[in-house]
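Protocol step 4 of 6: structure prediction from sequence.
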Amino acid sequence: MTAEFVVLLVVVVTALAFDFTNGFHDTGNAMATSIATGALKPKTAVGLSAVLNLVGAFLSVEVAATVAKGVVNLDSTGGSSLLVIVFAGLVGGILWNLATWLFGLPSSSSHALFGGLIGAALAALGTSGVVWDGVLGKVIIPALLAPVVAALVAMVGTWSVHRLTHDIPEETRGKGFRIGQIGTASLVSLAHGTNDAQKTMGVIFLALVAYGTITPDTEMPFWVKFTCAVAIALGTYLGGWRIIRTLGKGLVEITPPQGMAAESSSAAIILTSSHFGLPLSTTHVATGSILGTGLGTKGAEVRWGIAGRMAVAWLITLPCAGVVGAVCWLIAHLIGGLAGVLVVFAILCALAGVMYLRSRLQPVDASNVNASWEGVSEAEAQNTDPVVQEGRA
């Protein structure tokens, strides 16, 4: 077993770890509104979402192709150098995912991954190491447009739903929309699998190209599809309760009509982006949709302070993950070889462990994810830690 093969194994394991964090980080995108309205019980919701993420991962590979060939310039590097770049980028993505999960901020797992890869490529190769056209056209522009489009679609949909059903008794209307939410939330989960699981497939594909196992024109290996599908499904099943709470309770108090409108608009936009190979942030889409339902509901309260914190997290995700990716590449490069990769991997494990232990001091799970967000002061409302909110309610 050569040192380069061990590096490949570490990269694949790290990629699947990122896929796992992507799963629990993004569960709220599909299920937060259904859990908040009572359409689905919390554990039932994450279980259903996990199964549909698993299925969705097998439906398309367009996004995987974009990740594999549209971020790092494959003409500028290869072999072990490319493996280390991919590894450092993954570490940057994982650490940002865990940090934002700890604070209950629904930031973009996709942009964390892209930021890590871009930062590592810049540190290793300079500006020539990044496919800037691909980053601009398939990452930056969709990131700016997605939440705006999602908010507008959800706002119009919510307004229309209220107008069409205003004569129906509230109890009957709520029950009907809760049933509808089961279908729309399921569709979002399926769409999430088709978009986000493929990002990790693309990264592993990139690593295999670097190692020389396959060429850039090779079809995606089945084992890559299967392992990525399982990893994101397992992560989804854990729930990511902290972020589910923020999306379901922190931004807008969701009613069943709003929930169904948000999920419908999210699913339509995510599935469209997957068809065109756009690695869209499902977090941006889902959050924009939820915000739009608040704007489309007369008298609804939108907590703009929480929305502002989310927007800041979105803006700094790419550069922050990029800095982490660059630093990880530098550490691995300075130490050199397999030892450098193992040292960075040990740092990743240590920091992940610290953040996990910190989260257990204020746990959020299925039992308190729907606790009321009301009754907090403005200063306390700026703290997105769900347990602080619950304790003050």
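Step 5 (inspection) to follow. The chain is about 75% helix and 0% strand.
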